[in-house]
Amino acid sequence: MLKFDQLTKRRGVATILSDVSFEARPGRVTGFLGPNGAGKSSTLRILLGLDSPTSGTALVDGVPFAELRDPLRKVGAVLDGSGAHRARTGRAHLRWIAAAGGIPRGRVDEVLAEVGLSKAAGKRVGGYSLGMGRRLALAAALLGDPEVLVLDEPVNGLDPEGIRWIRGFLRERAGDGRTVLLSSHLMGELSETVDDVVVIDGGRIVAQGTLAEVVGGHRSLENAFFALTAGAVR
Q1: Which of 126, 151, 124 shows the shortest CA–CA distance to 138?
Q2: 21 touches 216 (CB < 8 A)
Q3: H or E element that contains 227
Q4: What is the DSSP letter of 124?
Q5: Strand-pair partners of 149
Q6: Full 3-state SS string of 5-72
Q7: Is residue 24 within 8 Å of residue 181, measured between CB atoms?
Q8: pLDDT bracket for residue 82 (50, 70, 90)
Q9: Domain 1-61+150-234 top-level CATH class
Q10: Contacts of 107 (CB under 8 A, 6+ apart)
Q11: What are the tens digits of pLDDT across the range 88-139?
């Protein structure tokens, strides 16, 4: 389980996050929505130990990310691109991560096949399309076969076939009892994938619950989102 409890982040006089509290549970896909600048990235960065909160906690099974004994096997994350050097091949990039994390080398070809990059594994990352880069980043996140996946804009750059594939993939992960937390601006796609929804605006949680609960009497998740965030400064 991922648990955010009264998470607050300030930078100078600016409040980035204010008492953010929610959970992402095993066996469910949780969608994390908000306008640009709402605090989504800050929340995920704190969860992954890339930033520190002013107060509050973000925990993975009751433990801060920095204290996890085997982080690659606990949490797989995709935030900003693949993080791979453009001169490296996709396979070399994954082998480097596997070696650093104590993961068997044979796992590299398994995840390449899982994300559909086997044929492109020997190509330099600099020649990858945006969609291929997203698949490589996902492959890196899967190396440790983690219990938790944290994904920011996972379908960005994917073609329709790729979007359909990742939708099924995420549902399979949740079906296996894994925890999936994903952030995206594509609300139509999210509504096809998520079980639960958390909406953040201006650094505060403005709605959370099952997809049906958050949509409520609105025609769609998109309509509910705009109603919940109406009047916010962009």
Answers
A1: 151
A2: no
A3: helix 221-228
A4: B
A5: 76, 180
A6: EEEEEEECCEEEEEEEEEEECCCCEEEEECCCCCCHHHHHHHHCCCCCCCEEEEEECCECHHHCCCHH
A7: yes
A8: low
A9: alpha beta
A10: 98, 143, 145
A11: 999 999 999 999 999 999 999 999 999 999 999 999 999 999 889 989 999 9
Q: Taking each helix axis as running N to C, give the angle between helix 106-114 and helix 90-101, from 0 to 180 degrees, rounded to the nearest 10.
A: 130
Q: Model's pTM, two decimal places? A: 0.92
Among all chains, which residue has been given the structure tokens 């899982």?
114
Q: Where do the structural domains in the chain lie, given as residue ranges?
A: 1-61+150-234, 84-146
104, 69 in Cβ contact below 8 A?
no
Tell me which residue of 182, 194, 200 sits closest to 221, measured CA to CA. Answer: 194
Beta bridge partners of 141: none
Helices (H) and strands (E) in the chain, counts: 9, 9
d(CA 69, CA 62): 13
What would the two tokens of residue 56 be? 């509050």
Half-sphere CA count of 151, side-chain side, radius 13 A:
31
Nearest of 224, 153, 157, 228 to residue 193 by alpha carbon: 153
**Of 114, 118, 71, nearest to 90 (Cα)?**
118
